User: What shape does this take?
Amino acid sequence: MRNLLFGILAVASVCILLCAQDRADRSDLAVVGRIKAEAFDNSQVMDTLEHLTDQYGPRLTASPEWHEAADWAVKRLQSYGVDARLEKWGTPARSWSLKRASVEVLEPRYSPLVAAPLAWSDVTHGVKTAEVIFAQYGTGRRTLDPRKAQEELDKFMAEWKGKLRGKIVLISPVRRVDPAAKPLFRRYTSQELSDLAEAPAPLLKAPVDLKNLKFPDTEDLEELIQFNASLPAWVHEQLRKRREALAARRAKFFQDEGAVAIINSDQRAHDSLLFAEAAGPYDAKETPAVPTFVVTQEQYNRILRLLDDKVPVKLRVDLEADVSTDNQDAYNIVGEIPGGAKKDELIMIGGHFDSWHTGTGATDNGAGSAVMMEVVRILKALNLRMDRTVRIALWSGEEEGLLGSKAYVKEHFGDPETMQLTAQHQKLSGYFNLDNGSGKIRGVYLQDNDAMRPVFEGWLSAFRDEGVTTVSIRNTGGTDHLSFDAVGLPGFQFIQDPLDYGTLTHHSDMDTFDHVQGPDLMQAAAVIATVVYDAANRVEMLPRKELPKPWPAPESSSTAPAGTN
Assistant: This one.
């Protein structure tokens, strides 16, 4: 009888705990109502974003513009009552701050070109005029395969050695400018969200290494993105290092050969300058790339047609930038709202604060940064009780390979290479990220963490009438939640409406305040503030996946999707 009583009590205790947890995974609708009212009626998200973009502009990692914007953001967070600061994580890059740039056709007829310089280009040391030659580099097809990229560089160097001195070199192939067949601006349809909620077909897995890994041979950017998201962290890191080594070797070749400048064509659309990213190495220990520009496809094709007709073309180029001779300190922005009963446990939110330089970094990722700042403003303004400490982190170095968040995770939580974990690893419940433009939230990627499905379904149910309907088991790549996932911590990126992010603004001169949707950011702030409040007060820590294994040594075997050829 006594054993039976103990058994009944034990079962009752478990039921009480489970019921309590079930209630914790269903949002308190009274609190949700208060959060929505604050987010919609008293929003400051667009004011924050306007300061970051219009007043401070682009925020290239290690640049003066990044530091000025970061100092402002810290003060803004402090004005909300948040304990905010800058936290140094390394010296990854030379400082590069654009001052002046232009590209003009002088012969056979004058024509100004719509051109953007690429970051970390060397300067022209005054205005330079030179003849143009066409020296095609590669096939123009997108590839993730480091072997193919190396083969293309070897072939180019062998063919053009001794032929580039004093020339402006056009290196992109001819591309057709087809009429736009897809809308530039769109939202997810119900069918697309339903498809996203479906688990992808299982992939056959086999022991692979970088020598034997098969990369898709495709021009479909979406296919490459999906394949890239399926790769384990160690492969991503090896590919990043190889890309950097290749960029350094290419930059040294053009400098040694005495090229005056390099001209690329717009690779994705003819409506704006896209892929205006890095010219070459950002590490000051490497030879800088010669002045490099991207121009619209139409203007680029015209020059190629003139050269093909044996008509000489002469360009005038000018690029002035403040460039440091050594690598500069880089920082993340960190702030906290102290918790109550479980203040030693953490909920983290974030997004990357750095941007490219041709626009003002509004949709990538001023929008995500402004939303996360608004989330902590809402939580402080409402003075909501939260058991766990809430920490915001706005990263630098994301555009160069998630460098800021990787360094932070390694210092605070664990090293993915060795899987040596810190004591704080057990104290982080979860990390939530926003970095896919300014579209409103439509759901969340579970990152293969099935145990989080009922948790998110409960939290997000209060926003179904706001379009938040989709919980997807899929992985999504390319942003800072991956740094947390790499050491087995729950890290999540929200599903957002695409809008014109992939067609117009991403890494483009069009990445400006005018392409941001204010109501969408207000909705995102309300959703994330609710998720953070619920996570901070959940009875248990968020469920975790099995810890990853330490990274294999370079070139050794591991298990990853084999891909297709």
